[in-house]
Amino acid sequence: MIKSSLLLGGWLGFAPVPRRLLLTLCILVGAAPQTAPASIARLSPSIQFSPFAASVLTHPAPVAGTDGFVHLAYELVLTNVTALEIRIDKVQVRSAGTRRVLLSLSGGALRANLNPVGGPVASDSAASSGPITVRGSQSVIVWLDVRVRRYSDVPAILDHRIVAAPVAPPPNAPRSLTTVVPPVATVRHRPIVLGPPVAPGIWYASEGCCSDFTHHRHGLTSVNGQLLVPQRFAIDWYRLDSQHRAWVGDPSKLSSYLAYRQPVLAAANATVVETQDGLPNNPDIPKPPTIPPIQNTVGNHLVLKLSPGVFLLYAHLQRGSLHVHLGQRVRRGQVLGLIGTSGNSTAPHLHFQLMTTRTFFPTDSPPFVFDRFRLLGQVTQRIWDDNLGLQPTGTLPFTAARRPSARRSQMPLDRNVVSFSAVALP
Fold this sequence. Notes:
- The structure is a single chain.
- Helices cover about 5% and strands about 35% of the residues.
- The protein has three domains: about 1-50, no CATH class; about 50-185, Immunoglobulin-like (Sandwich), CATH 2.60.40; about 190-420, Distorted Sandwich (Glucose Permease (Domain IIA)).
- A hairpin with a 2-residue loop joins β18 and β19 (about 310-315).
- The longest helix has 10 residues, at about 1-10.
- By secondary structure, the chain is mainly beta.
- Strands 20-17-18-19-22-15-12-26-24-25 form a ten-stranded antiparallel sheet, with no helix packed on it.
- It is elongated, with a radius of gyration of 25 Å.
């Protein structure tokens, strides 16, 4: 027992153990000599050396999407703490209580949702037949979208089963490294319910959640040493006409974009706690702007405080268009400002999200739902903000929903096209 434990600790990359610590090691692995005091407790059989250190970047929070599923979108970070290269064959998300598997990723599906921290992110069309390997000391992130049918199906605690193996194991070392990494509690309350953040009409929900590759959902960043996905559930809103055009005329002119100077509305009764104004629109549309300083990332903007730890961000507003001031109490449906293209924005749109802090960096990005809207259909191709104005025309490729219908207490998913009606005050 002592020999095998030492071998495991050694090949996992731990330093050699001095002889005087052998007794301690024996006790830790439950192999104390017969001379050890009978009162010494043995560890649970679930305690084991793990080849990975693991963490999540948020508490998974459920939200009902327009696809009929309740989504838990979050991220699992794995660091190979050994000196060996390890192949990951499967990642499973389970109910910690029942061990029921809620999500299982392997092969191309795993590769499309896993990338090195700081490395390239696979697109939602990626596939691969090759092995997925992690070098010693390397960290990878797994982008998870767990789906269940009802809020009541969300377990209180999730865990993560990693099926892996060393690429070139030393003699007598384990050939399988299946391990369960830390359980995480889920958020037990339902997401906040909001009114529309934009005026009545047809709107394209771009860069939204949950399984598609988007700059919001996969926007991993480090702020003051903290690893974050600060725009996980953000949506970029573009106004469309009945022909599903985002712009009409000359795409180098701001006035050609249907979202330009559209009013943004208070989605709830709240207090204005942050504002920024005075930044110009991007003068080079449809070309992407130069990346601005971090303080100007979201351009002219305002932040509403709904309650402690619950804030709404409205970003990329028109210079001089803010209708409100710091400390002002606003009512749901009230006009707050106008859409522009200030900050890191190529085409006029509203960047809208829920935050846990009054600042957009650093923050976490929880989900939210709208009390009512109509789902009209889906934009069928990925068209980024950066190339919207570079398309031959402003008409977006659109497929109508099989049954366009009114939705209540749901979150529009990536590339949904929806319509908001006049604000119905609570």
